Amino acid sequence: MTAAATLNSAIIADFSVRLPGSKHEAGSFDLRVDERLPGAGVTVVFGASGCGKTTLLRALAGLQPIESGYLRVKGETWHDEKESLPAHRRPVGYVFQEASLFEHLTAAGNLEFARKRAAATVNEQEVQDVIALLGLGDLLQQRPQQLSGGERQRLSIARSLLIKPELLLMDEPLAALDQTRKQEILPYLDRIRAELKIPMIYVTHALDEVTRLADHLMILSQGRVRACGPIREVLARIDVPGILGEEAGAIVEGRVTERDSEWHLIRVDFEGGQLWLRDSGEAMGQQLRVRTLARDISLSLEADQASSILNRLPAEVAAIAEDADPAMALVQLLVGAPGETRLVARISRRSVAQLALSPGKPVWAQIKSVAVLY
Amino acid sequence: MGFSAADWAAISLSLQLAAVTTLILLMLGTPLAWWLARTRSRLKGPVASIVALPLVLPPTVLGFYLLVAMGPNGPIGGLTQSLGLGSLPFTFWGLVVGSVCYSMPFVVQPLQNSFASIGERPLEMAATLRAGPWDRFLHVVLPLARPGFLSASVLGFAHTLGEFGVVLMIGGNIPGQTRVLSVQIYDHVEALDYGQAHWLAGAMVLFSFLVLLFLYSIPARRGDAGLRFSA
Predict the structure, then answer these.
(1) Which residues in chain A are contacts of B131 at CB distance < 8 A?
(2) What is the CATH number of the domain that holds B128?
């Protein structure tokens, strides 16, 4: 893809939004964004509540006025100094946190509301496809009040797809659901990501919920973008201390290359190394994305064979940074000879001193646990 | 016994007055209630107070000022005369103007409560589903506010039907033109014709009871806030 084509398919957001102080909070809040988001795949916007992530989505959708700046989506100007496209002219699908449905319409009526107003004609087959994609076939005649939380959210996602959006905005669609319901929705999100080529911006305060979905990650804090980029890069960074907290930890992508049926393990090869994981029936050759939380990686100077830790990787210290917690430090590691893969370990500052860790020093990374994302 | 011809004329006039008034009030009251429900303007308080004034003012006070305003030297009177419509007091249309003012809060408040209870979310949701402002109003607000419209219409109608003080002040007692039900009852009592008065008064009690029974038996739904202010 040429640079111009990339520009034309990207979401270019350079704007600020100001919210007047409400009765409950003193002062006003402002959000400042200057980022280029990819016009494909899933971008997760992560931040604590009140960081401005919902405001960002609302500004993208046109529900929140932009104070200054511009917004271009796939080559179309949605907002600049001269004009601002009103919300109803922007081809965005918006999924609200608490599954807002039209209570005066049936499930089918809710879908029809969107279909009639779609940017392009939606034929019957496409409607059926969306209904099937979100498993709504049996619910169409129900009223929203009769649906469970998970069903409501699926209906609301289906409805947002039926306007044929060029951009899908999701505002913590799982936050209001319990754990079981979340697990009920996640496969559908996977399917949307895999089957529809609609770029998605997904806002959440629970990173683990969506690390498997995300291609891109933006970290927001107090109305400012702290990090933004491909999720593997952002999660391997150590210069955004504290924001991720206990969630800090890098992502590794690899392929299943061996199955050890005696010990029920599989081997995943990634650029620069390999990991042994518990065998959950993954197919040989299957692509896997796994996450190693920084707090689950410890470092030693020797290959300590007499340990229960299954995965020990030779690595090199790339950088050391302070954690928000004064007792802790974040250590970025390069794994493998050319250093293609980066991991992050969170260890005590005393250990950093005792091991005399500094950039360039070879260490062994002991990985206590690995979470398979997909 | 039963209703006399004059009673029937009064009943028919009252029904016409109530119907016309309710229709006009729905047309004026809907945008006004919408504005009151959503504005953050500093004028909201004063406007809401003016709309609510007939709730607390003696009808004679309201009628007195309307009479003055509609008179040949008043602002409304001047306007109607320059438009060639003649003078409004002691006419049916004078009563309509009076009733519109008098019953305004009974239509505006249920609508306003109903609009307010819909909240911002359904409108935002509709906007992201590509519905423009009119589309949103027609296909989201109106259906969601239906209980409010029902309460507003019934209350506006019933309240106008029972109007007395304002009518007497600006309409007088002209048979077939301004002699409405309540005035007819007053006349019967003045003439010590309690029997006739009973028939009409009893009919009014029954009608009002049935109207309220109907309103209170509407299943309570989100958006139905019709009687909150008066009950």
Answers:
(1) 88, 113, 117
(2) 1.10.3720.10
Q: Which residues of chain A have pLDDT under 70?
A: 1-8, 21-27, 241-243, 337-339
Q: How far apart are CA B138 and CA B225, in angstroms?
A: 20
A237 to chain B, any CB pair closer than 8 A? The answer is no
ipTM over 0.85: no
Distance CA B5, CA B138 (A): 44
- Residues with Cβ within 8 Å of A296's Cβ and at least 6 positions away in sequence, in order, are A249, A367, A368, A369, A370
Tokens of A103: 């209570």
Domain that residue B115 falls in: 5-217
Beta strands per DSSP E along A91-245: 92-95, 167-171, 200-204, 216-221, 224-230
Q: Could you state, in order of their start, the residue ranges of all structural domains in chain A?
A: 3-241, 249-372
Dihedral angle over CA of A35, A41, A43, A44, nearest 10: -170
Residue A117 at interface with chain B, using a CB cutoff of 8 Å: yes
pLDDT digits (tens, 9 = 90+) for A330-354: 999 998 766 678 899 999 999 999 9
**Alpha-carbon gap: B134 to the closest alpha carbon of chain A (Å):** 11
What's at A256, amino acid-wise?
Answer: V
Q: Which of B114, B123, B116, B139 is CA-nearest to residue B26?
A: B114
Q: Which CATH number fits domain A3-241: 3.40.1280.10, 1.10.3720.10, 2.60.40.10, 3.40.50.300?
A: 3.40.50.300
